[in-house]
């Protein structure tokens, strides 16, 4: 009869797993952990250990290991080394190889004197990737980056548009409650596991394999994965994607429902949940936001947008340009490619296009994207287009089907590519890690190289514009300027600036529209339209103020707070000119103040102040607060917020008082 005692706290500290709340032993591969046996009367040399994982453990598949006590640690295989002995206990240091399969293991022991009797079970432990170990594929030399990209449970995600970048907090919560078990069950629900469980488990030593499998499992397409996407603007039957504040609630809901897809997600939600899962398993991961992100549906590295004669953006193309798109980067070496392609790898769980027959994307080497090596695994052409595609803007006549190119641009796509700084909440721009400087010769050479590798240079494309269309020059230029605040509840004031580029007068007929959109720039509701005719003297510049009142857009706005304003300029005797701008309105701010000093394990009051910006009562407001180790679960406070009697229309200030016990963490309030 043997008892096993695991010094969990020491192992957890050494293995950077002390943030997990589980009582189970959780350790990282390629590193020793200590177990102590009580009550053994066997000489330690007679002990043989068996560690096994998956439904059909096998030595050949590296899902089973048998090893005895040895004098030294093996770098290549599982091993056990005697640490210390006393009259009634033995401490043994067990090491796994740095390329061991990750997951939940059963550990058992057999003694030579027991002959052919069954091994005695010692219990289970979970083995994770180890970015602190130089032999691991996910090894990250910078310790501060390990802290941020594996251990940090709170993050900042960037959104908005290229003219107006905003950000919001997200609670990844990878160490909370049952999240590790949910992540492991996610692997066991994948299509690969269902088709061949033993082979799937044997590949779980490989971060590129797991990253690809999980990019499929985080979306619900194909496999009843975690999140169902919805970009319609109508979120009945579920939660609006913008109302989530953390991954924990989503993953718990998925499990509680019997693994039915959670409604609803959009790109940042998919990316945030994938961040949680990969950090939980030990793969360094971060979220990346790409502004003016191309969705190139037909793989020609070109995005086509169509507008009718009134200036309405037509939702008729499979291609689109999103205000922003969020994906992931994970850090690991690429054993399948040249070493220069190791490092940050792009993974994308948002279901956009099929890859290998299902909705998954990556890992695509970021270095391969920058160098135009789009022939390398996985999904490099799609990711390359997201940051590099050329844009074509067409006037389309639905009656005749005729399309006319208005203009093309090669510098619109892939701007201000952003991620959170290590150890602080600042934005870091990583655009130069994805491509050479926009407009430079090198950038154009890489674009041509990518086209050539995809066979696009030599292939006739009947949908492409002619060189004559591309070379045509407009007679006028135009732009929308913002005049005043971009806030929900305030009127939207813009100035349309038109300039005559020629030395003779030009008559221009303007059709202007404003539509509410979702952040993918898909039009949802028309808000406003107007038409005017103007004459511009030679080289003259004129300004036209535009006001769209709050009452005009209030009922039409989607939860993304995005409006697209367009002016289609019909120039007499010249080509049409399209002027457009995407507007993102900010929600009213929430002011948070900690009252008094915050001390670990002591209650502290936090005051949350929200000011109603409009002159009518706001009904059915919910203040949602979550914070790891601060609050148990998510706190929701329901409230109606009125207006004050002041004519200044500054709105009603609503104070909420929260009592929080501080256990060294961060809070996310929305």
From TrEMBL:
Residues involved in Ca(2+) binding: 388, 390, 438, 443
Manner of cofactor binding, per the entry note: Binds 1 Ca(2+) ion per subunit.
Requisite cofactors: Ca(2+)
SMART domains recorded: TGc
Domain Transglutaminase-like: 259-351
The keyword Cell division is assigned to this record: no
Catalytic reaction(s) noted: L-glutaminyl-[protein] + L-lysyl-[protein] = [protein]-L-lysyl-N(6)-5-L-glutamyl-[protein] + NH4(+)
Active site positions, chain numbering: 267, 325, 348
Keyword list, A-Z: Acyltransferase, Calcium, Metal-binding, Transferase
Enzyme Commission code(s) on record: 2.3.2.13
Group of enzyme by EC: transferase
Source organism superkingdom: Eukaryota
Organism, scientific name: Strix occidentalis caurina (northern spotted owl)
Pfam families per UniProt: Transglut_C (PF00927), Transglut_core (PF01841), Transglut_N (PF00868)
Identification of the protein by name: protein-glutamine gamma-glutamyltransferase
Family affiliation: Belongs to the transglutaminase superfamily. Transglutaminase family.
GO-annotated molecular function: metal ion binding; protein-glutamine gamma-glutamyltransferase activity
